[in-house]
Amino acid sequence: MKKGKSYRGLLTRKRDGFMGEKQIILPLKLLKKTIVNDPFLNNLYITLIGYFPKATFHYRERRWGCEDNILFYCLDGKGWYENKDGYREIKANEFVILPATNKYLRYGADAKDPWTLCWVHFCGNQLSHFNNVYSLNQFLTPTLLSPDEKRIQLWEEMYNTLEMGYSISNLSYANFCLYHFVASFIFPNNGFSKFPVKNDNIITQAIKYMRDNLHEQLSVNYLANKFNYSDSHFSNLFHKQTGISPIDYFIQMKMQKACQLLDFTDAKIKDVAISVGFQDPYYFTRIFRKFIGTSPTEYRLTKKG
Fold first, then answer.
1. Where are the domains of the chain?
2. 202-303: what CATH class?
3. Is the model's pLDDT at 21 over the cut of 90?
4. What is the pTM assigned to this prediction?
5. Which architecture characterizes domain 5-148 according to CATH?
6. Per-residue pLDDT at 302
7. In sequence order, what E strands does the chain have?
8. Is the pLDDT of residue 12 over 80?
9. What does the mean pLDDT of the chain come to?
């Protein structure tokens, strides 16, 4: 296929916002605080993770490349990418790994048969070494894989863990899964092991309850009573398991959801605020800046491209 053919029939270009889409962008402030300076976690770590089903008109242009590696796994349909070396089509059950670069890059869905895509961006202090040792340039050519549900389960392990909040244990677990997930592509014949089963303890139940009630204002007293604990005992247990207080954890989850709404919808800031339980948009903006490091308006302008 000739260079530039990817645009034919592509009358509308859409960066994000697909029915059933999932995406988590790890806030830069969070990465700097908890991962970048950690000598163990900072070797390789997730920066973005997402899933786009039947992503009609999906298109992304990166004029100055991307400082992360990007792994695309096409589950159905077709897509494409183009870099300085030319244009390549990606079909169902194929993957590519685009190494970090400062060169022009663009990619998108096929106009007639748009891809269903799961993807992950990952970065780290050892990224260049990793790319060289495992010759990741070989995966610039789309590579066919036999379908394996366990590979998708690994992606879900990472996404679902991060969706449960940014505790140090969640960040560590998700990033350990990243190694296994990437290894399943670059060493496809080495097989899988069974996944560990997490205990569904009281704190996990509380976190799930928080996730399902992000539009509410939940107090420590309310959560403690719901799970039949005293306020102090519940807070101590929560802090011991997650490393932060219940309220800070709940606010982090609200901010994660707010980021998704800012990424995937055109909702007004005040409506995003209400969706995550803040009636006052000015207070929401203040909290958002505290946890994410920028205002909601600035985030929307910078993070989507």
1. 5-148, 202-303
2. mainly alpha
3. no
4. 0.77
5. Sandwich (2.60)
6. 79
7. 22-25, 45-52, 59-62, 69-76, 78-83, 86-91, 94-98, 105-109, 116-123, 143-144
8. no
9. 88
